[in-house]
Design goal:
The chain is an all-beta fold and 424 residues long. The protein has one domain (10-423): Beta Barrel (Porin). The chain is 3% helix and 58% strand. It has one helix at residues 10-21; strands at residues 38-48, 53-66, 69-85, 95-98, 105-108, 115-135, 138-149, 152-165, 170-183, 189-190, 209-211, 214-228, 233-246, 254-258, 264-269, 275-288, 293-303, 308-320, 323-335, 344-345, 363-376, 380-393, 413-423. The strands form four sheets. A 16-stranded antiparallel beta barrel has the order 1-2-3-6-7-8-9-12-13-16-17-18-19-21-22-23. This is DUF3570 domain-containing protein.
C-alpha cells in the first residue's frame, strides 16, 4: 500500500521503486531535501463476506542523511481471522472434517462450501532499506526483511543498481532478491495424496504426516527501464523472473474423491510441484493532463505451472483545493494451473500433482475503489481509501457428475477494503 503522496525526485528513488517491485523494499517514500525523519502510518481493514477478515497496521520511517543517501524502515503488524475454503466440494448432506491439529472436527451444512473456521494467524514483519549513489549516474540499494507467523518464518535480502542516461531522462536498473522460508503448519506436514483421517479413527493428530516442517527458497531477478517521454509523460518497463524451490503445497488444503454420482467418498491432502519458475512483464505509464494525472499499468505473468494472468490497473489523480481524490479500477484474469482439479473421480489414476484450491484455478477479479487525501498543517497528510473487490472462480472445463451439478462448486468471494493513513 502506498502511504505517502509526496513527489520526490524520480531519479533519486528509482532504486527503491525497483526493489519494491521485487516485493522487498519498504513502501514508505523518502522525504526530499531534509535531514528530518518522515513517518507514514496506515491502518487497513480487509473483510470477505463470511470468510477471512484481516487488520493490518504499518508504520514506516525514512530519512535522508546526506545527498541521495536514504534509510527506510518499516514495521508491519497484521492479524487474520475467519474461515478459509479447505478445497473440498460442497455436498447435499452435512460433512465433517478434521481440524488441522488433528484434535477436533467441524461440520459443514448441506450445500455449503466447506470452510475451515479455525483460520487464525498474526504476522510481524520488519523491513530495512539503504540507498546511495555509487558513482556518477549510478545509484545502489540494499535491504533486508524478516517476517514471522505462528506457522511461517521468512528472511529475505535484496540489492539493486540503477544507471541514469541522457540528463536523467532514461534509467536502466537491475535488481536481485532472495528469500528463505520455513513452513511449520499446525499438526505437521501432511503426506500428499494421503487420506484425511477423522477423529473417530482414534487420535488423527500426527497420522499421515511427513514431519514437522519444511522450507523453500526464492530468487527474484528484475530488469527495468524508465523513460521520460516528454514533460507530461513517463513510462516504465520491467521484466522479472522468479525461481522457487522447495515446499509449495498448502498443508491445509484437501481434494475430494467423488463417485460417479458426485458423492464424496474421502478427502485427500493436495500435492503441488516442488519447483516453480515465473516470468512477468510490466508496463506503466503516467500522463499529466491539464489538471490531473492518469496512471495506467498492465502486467502479464506466466509460469511452468501453466498459470497465466493479466492485470490491468488504472488510477486517476484529481487535485482539489488542499486535497485530492483518486478513483481506482483493477481487473485481473487468471488461467488455471495444470494440476488444478476441483475434485477427483474415484477409480481414476492419481495425477502427479493435484490441488482444488481456487487460488490456482481459473478466475477473474474486479476492484473498484477511491482514495481521498487532504493536506494538513506541518507538511502532513490524512488519507482515506475504500475499495470493493469481487473474485469469481470459473469452471475451466470439468464435467460435474450427479449431485455436484446442484451445488455451488465455484463460489464467488466478495470483500471490502478500508484504509486510513497519516503522513507527517
Amino acid at each position: 500500500m502506498q502511504l505517502s503522496n509526496k513527489k520526490p525526485n524520480v531519479a533519486k528513488l528509482l532504486t527503491l521503486a525497483t526493489c519494491s517491485l521485487l516485493g522487498t523494499a519498504p513502501d514508505a517514500i523518502a522525504a526530499e531535501d531534509t535531514n528530518q525523519w518522515r513517518f507514514d502510518t496506515a491502518l487497513m481493514y480487509y473483510g470477505e463476506s463470511e470468510r477471512v477478515t484481516a487488520v493490518e497496521g504499518i508504520i514506516a520511517a525514512s530519512k535522508e542523511f546526506s545527498d541521495q543517501e536514504f534509510l527506510n524502515l518499516k514495521l508491519t503488524l497484521d492479524t487474520l481471522t475467519g474461515a478459509s475454503a479447505n478445497g473440498a466440494v460442497a455436498q447435499p448432506n452435512v460433512q465433517t472434517f478434521t481440524r488441522p491439529s488433528g484434535r477436533g472436527s467441524y461440520d459443514i451444512e448441506a450445500k455449503d462450501t466447506p470452510l475451515d473456521d479455525t483460520f487464525r494467524d498474526s504476522r510481524v514483519q520488519v523491513n530495512a532499506q539503504w540507498s546511495q549513489p555509487l558513482a556518477e549516474n549510478y545509484l545502489g540499494s540494499v535491504g533486508a526483511y524478516v517476517s514471522s507467523e505462528h506457522d511461517y518464518f521468512s528472511l529475505g535480502f535484496n540489492a539493486n543498481i540503477a544507471r541514469e542516461f541522457y540528463n536523467k531522462n532514461t534509467t536502466l536498473s537491475f535488481g536481485i532478491a532472495a528469500a528463505q522460508d520455513q513452513i511449520s503448519p499446525e499438526g505437521g506436514l501432511p503426506t500428499p495424496f494421503s487420506e484425511m483421517l477423522t477423529v473417530q479413527d482414534g487420535n488423527a493428530n500426527g497420522l499421515n504426516r511427513l514431519g514437522a516442517d519444511d522450507d523453500k527458497t526464492t530468487v527474484d531477478l528484475l530488469f527495468g527501464l524508465t523513460q521520460v517521454i516528454n514533460r507530461k509523460m513517463i513510462m516504465q518497463f520491467n521484466y522479472s523472473y522468479s525461481q522457487v524451490d522447495g515446499y509449495q503445497t498448502d498443508p491445509y488444503k484437501i481434494v475430494s474423491v467423488v463417485d460417479n454420482n458426485g458423492y464424496a467418498l474421502r478427502q485427500l491432502y493436495e500435492s503441488r510441484p516442488d519447483s516453480r519458475n515465473k516470468n512477468s512483464v510490466f508496463w506503466q505509464t503516467k500522463y499529466h493532463l491539464t489538471n490531473s494525472v492518469i496512471d495506467f499499468s498492465y502486467r502479464y505473468l506466466w509460469d511452468d505451472w501453466d498459470v497465466k494472468s493479466h492485470t490491468f490497473d488504472v488510477r486517476y489523480h484529481i487535485p482539489l483545493e488542499g486535497a485530492y481524490i483518486e478513483p481506482h479500477v483493477r481487473y485481473y484474469q487468471q488461467q488455471a494451473a495444470e494440476f488444478y482439479q476441483p475434485f477427483l473421480l474415484d477409480g481414476e489414476p492419481s495425477p502427479e500433482n493435484i490441488s482444488a484450491d481456487y487460488r490456482v484455478g481459473e478466475m477473474n477479479g474486479l476492484t473498484l475503489g477511491v482514495k481521498y487525501a487532504m493536506e494538513l498543517e506541518g507538511d502532513s497528510e490524512l488519507a482515506f481509501r475504500l475499495e470493493f473487490f469481487q473474485q469469481t472462480p470459473t469452471n475451466p472445463g470439468f464435467e460435474t457428475p450427479g449431485v455436484l451439478a446442484d451445488v455451488e462448486l465455484f463460489e464467488s468471494v466478495s470483500a471490502v477494503v478500508a484504509q486510513i493513513s497519516y503522513s507527517f
